What does this fold into?
Amino acid sequence: MRTRRLAAATMAAAVTVAVSAGCTDDSPEAAPAASASAAAAQPDAIVDVVSAMEPSVVTIHTGEGLGSGVIYRADGVIVTNAHVVGSATRVQVSFADGTQIPGQVTGSDDLTDLAVVKVGRDNLPAVTVRQELPRQGETALALGSPLGFENTVTKGIISGVSRQIPASTTGGRPLVDLIQTDAPISPGNSGGALLDAQGRLVGVNEAYIPPAAGAVSLGFAIPASTVVDVTDQLLKNGKVAHPFLGVVLTSVTPEVARALGMDVTAGAVVRQVQPGSPAATAGIRTGDVIVGFQSTTVETVGDVYAALRTVKPGDRVTVKVNRGGTVTDLPITLGTLSR
It folds into this structure.
């Protein structure tokens, strides 16, 4: 179904791009990750983890196709990708025991690509969530329904954290703060679980870069900490409060810098400032180059979006701008993004 396939040159709209993770390498690992126990790294232990966690992953059917989901709470709360449910308000949910029941989409957030589905079933096997980021090299297990093959598991490692996929690749907003895995990705895995060697949820699979773009095993997942924050807000309020700056940005490239005679080679150029926005009130102008946000050095637009993920509406932050060669710190009180 809908799957977040990211290609450098061509791709569908951002909401139709999805990912899941998995690895076809069946050889045993040379050494377990430092944060995983030796027992958990053994083949039999992995088999036990998969067997225990398969019931916590579901298949979500919409009128346009299918994707995956993760049982978040035992009382029938399931989390998936927003692009999996799309505009649907009702879906069908298939469980590992072969049953299929209706589900209601109770909340969705396009910015983080997460959605909540509720079903009328209790005593479900909810996942255990690990909110701290995994370390590079840790075992990664991806569970989902690639191409409709339900209860599929693939195995790889955590390849990196805090990854960004630029807007030029997604065709929309950049995807930020992602976990990278070397698991091969297929349509239908989106919304499924990325687990560690102990079977704890470390991410929800979201996107991959296909081989046609020259990539080999580049998959991405939304970190569990983001999943918890967004899901809990959707359950409580039906929506997510995102901080609002009020600017339209473009990444500085050497070519752009040369063409415009700029004295910076990295940063985020302010193309437009929304009147009355926090940025306008703070004095940010068109043509300014944002080079810092709080303690973060800004080299691309993605860095600004990633920094905004760490703050909340109403927070007072410091934005560092380069204006005609002079660097200035501007205090800004963030607003709330209107949807």
